[in-house]
What we know:
Elements: H1 2-8, H2 10-34, E1 37-42, H3 46-59, E2 64-69, H4 74-80, E3 86-90, H5 92-102, E4 107-115, E5 118-120, E6 135-139, H6 142-154, E7 159-160, E8 173-175, E9 181-185, E10 199-202, H7 204-210, E11 220-221, E12 230-235, H8 243-254, H9 256-266, E13 270-272
Parallel strand pairs: 1-2, 1-3, 6-9, 6-10
Antiparallel strand pairs: 3-12, 4-12, 4-13, 5-10, 5-11, 7-8
Helix pairs in contact: 1-2, 3-8, 3-9
Amino acid sequence: MTFIKSALGGVRAAALFLVTAASLSYASTSFADNATLKIGTATSPQIDALKVAVREAKEQGLDVKLIEFTDWNTPNAALANKDIDVNYFQHIPFLENAKKQGGYNFVAIAPGTIMKIGLYSKKVKSFDQLKDGATVAIANDPVNGGRGLLLLQRAGLIKLKPGADYRATTLDIVDNPKHLKIVQLEASQLARSLDDVDLAQGYPSFIKLAGTADPNSALLFDGVENKLFAIQWVVRPESVNDPRIRKFITIYQQSPAVRAALDKAFGTLYAVAW
């Protein structure tokens, strides 16, 4: 460096350093563009459509590794630890809660599908058949649990305090005429609770995966109109413009084969949000 400064002068040396740094940065970016894209998702029938997109991406020169997680906490931890580049399993309310609780700095960059949720039972065929003191299972996370309570309110089984939204908790219940015993379970495990409870909040994707009931057999569904609950493609801030991620999302959103796989997996139980 002393030789360079003496030969070129301090200003020219600084300029040379900047050019070199820029060149190294460009080379690093080019390498990243060709690196394997790692996508994390929670295990569900969504995986079939994602695998179709992975195959189409490979045909277009983009190498993608799909990583399945069995719970709804690890995909965010893996993204924060840079074990994956993007995850696809959560909607905005869930993401905002995860950011608050985990201190994550994540960005949702594109929507995916909106999935219905429902109230399922293997013991009754209508809500009026529920006995006094019946056991009802809802999700145990702050967002999806609230969504379940809103559905119970729509069914006429409970009443929440005025203004309650998806952030509602059991403390917001102001009327419970059937004295329902509400238990809270991890959302991905609700499908397997149907033999043990009288009524359960359920996600058609997990119901189908578990094989515990017909995904279409819910006594009541919520709608797919609210894009607030669309699954999001979530990244770290520095990856917002990663061309690999953008290319994969485009493939996923525009591929007829991906849409066919979603139709096969979910029928009328989903909608697209893009």
